[in-house]
Write a structure and sequence with these properties.
Radius of gyration: 23 Å
Number of strands: 0
Largest sheet: none
Strand content: under 5%
Length: 88
């Protein structure tokens, strides 16, 4: 005979569930990859000689694009954490 859905059994079933689904974890991995891409875009532009100034450190890619990509990645990770599966 199957067990009845008593409040105690429902509580046990809820405890055994993961807080996030596999889809959430996939979205988290994509978000972290976007963040890493943003930091890669920020890299470079240095100079091997400390007496020589390299103006490439102030390029559009490093000053504007890369921080926007990183911020988008953090927002995407927040969305991935908050996303809930539709029930029903």
């Amino acid at each position: 005979m199957p067990a009845k859905n008593t409040p105690k059994n429902e509580a046990v079933n809820k405890e055994n569930q993961f807080p996030l689904s596999w889809k959430n974890y996939k979205l988290l991995i994509i978000g972290f990859a976007i963040i890493v891409l943003g930091f890669i875009l920020m890299a470079g532009g240095g100079s091997t000689d400390p007496n020589v100034f390299n103006p490439n450190i102030f390029s559009f890619r490093r000053i504007t694009l890369a921080p926007l990509v990183v911020l988008f990645g953090f927002a995407f990770v927040g969305y991935a954490i908050m996303k809930r599966e539709k029930k029903g």
